[in-house]
Amino acid sequence: MKMKGVTSIVGAVATDMGILTTPQLHWMVRARNKGMKASEQDYFEQLSSSFRCLVDLIPAEKCKFDGVNDKVVVDGSNGVS
Record's superkingdom (predicted)? Predict the structure, then answer.
């Protein structure tokens, strides 16, 4: 895919990362700017690792699943960039 407009910026290099959600794109720009790996797989690995760290903070006595509160609700309406 040709990246129109990017070539008008001196020294800019464009990378086609594919079809992404807006949060994925923002994470990838941040990761690249910090010199980190930035692929869709890296995004999901970071997201799942961060979620695991968050869940690990819940005290054990509060982790008893009762069948009512054992779901994670995800708002996926962020759109696609």
Answer: Eukaryota
> Can you tell me whether residue 80 is helix, strand or coil?
strand
Instruction: Check: CB of residue 7 under 8 Å from CB of residue 22.
Output: no
DSSP 61: G
Which residues, 6+ apart, have CB-to-CB distance to 31 below 8 Å? 37, 38, 42, 43
Decide: 80 and 26 in contact? Cβ < 8 Å. Answer: no
- What does the alpha-carbon distance between residue 45 and residue 25 come to, in Å, rounded to a whole number? 15
Summarised one tens digit per residue, pLDDT across range 26-48 is: 999 999 999 999 999 999 999 99
pTM listed for this prediction: 0.65
The alpha carbon of residue 8 and the mean position of all alpha carbons in its chain are separated, in whole angstroms, by 28
Domain layout of the chain by residue ranges: 4-62
